[in-house]
Amino acid sequence: MSRPGAVTFKGGPLTLAGQAVKPGDAAPDFKVHFFEGGMKEVTLASVKGKPTIISVVPSLDTPVCAAQTKKFNEELGALGSKINALTVSVDLPFAQGRFCGAENIKNLRALSDYQDRSFGQNWGMLIEELKILARGVFVLDSGGKVVHAETVKEVTDHPNYEAALAALKKLV
């Protein structure tokens, strides 16, 4: 199922693949990757057990995505190992690693959905026309239930940081 006009980019309508994830839903599965001495995998099962925030961005190599990642990195530092903090894009894991190193991103793990776009498809965040992810934020409880879900309507706008952080802090 597709959702035509679900998001816009500079006012132009775009189509999101899949179904929207809503609060109360069981988090859909996914398989994303990062590079750390070799390619490693992260799935839904591997984040269960702790509250999780998932920041979703089209590309770390754009100003709003970089700002979103830096903002969450700064805000989440105090929560440390009490949570899983992830940022997901389709950027290659190597580029994500360079970005995180250059920007001193230490409180989020950058994960890539480049291989099969399972996160984008399963979470309703894949922009069909561009094959990149829409912008959004999800918060999961330790059992994998979605407690906060935001898909930003205009891809170039920022998410509601305060709402996502408040939802996460209620779980810690």
Quick summary:
The chain is an alpha+beta fold and 172 residues long. The chain has one domain: 3-Layer(aba) Sandwich (Glutaredoxin), CATH 3.40.30.
Explain how this protein is built:
It is built from five helices and eleven strands. A five-stranded mixed beta sheet has the order 7-6-5-10-11. By secondary structure, it is an alpha+beta fold.
Comma- or semicolon-separated keywords:
172 residues, alpha+beta, Glutaredoxin, 5-stranded mixed β-sheet, 4-stranded antiparallel β-sheet, globular
Ordered list of secondary-structure elements with their pairings:
Elements lengths: L1 E8 L2 E6 L13 E5 L3 E5 H4 L4 E5 L6 H14 L7 E6 L3 H10 L6 E4 L5 H5 L3 E2 L4 E2 L2 E5 L5 E6 L9 H9 L3
Parallel strand pairs: 5-6, 6-7
Antiparallel strand pairs: 1-2, 2-8, 3-4, 5-10, 8-9, 10-11
The count of helical stretches stands at 5
**What proportion of the residues form beta strands (DSSP E)?**
25-35%
The CATH topology label is Glutaredoxin
In the CATH hierarchy, what is the architecture at level 2?
3-Layer(aba) Sandwich
Provide the domain count.
1
For the record, the CATH class is Alpha Beta
pLDDT averaged over residues: 96
How can the largest sheet be summarized? 5 strands, mixed
Strand order, sheet with most strands: 7-6-5-10-11
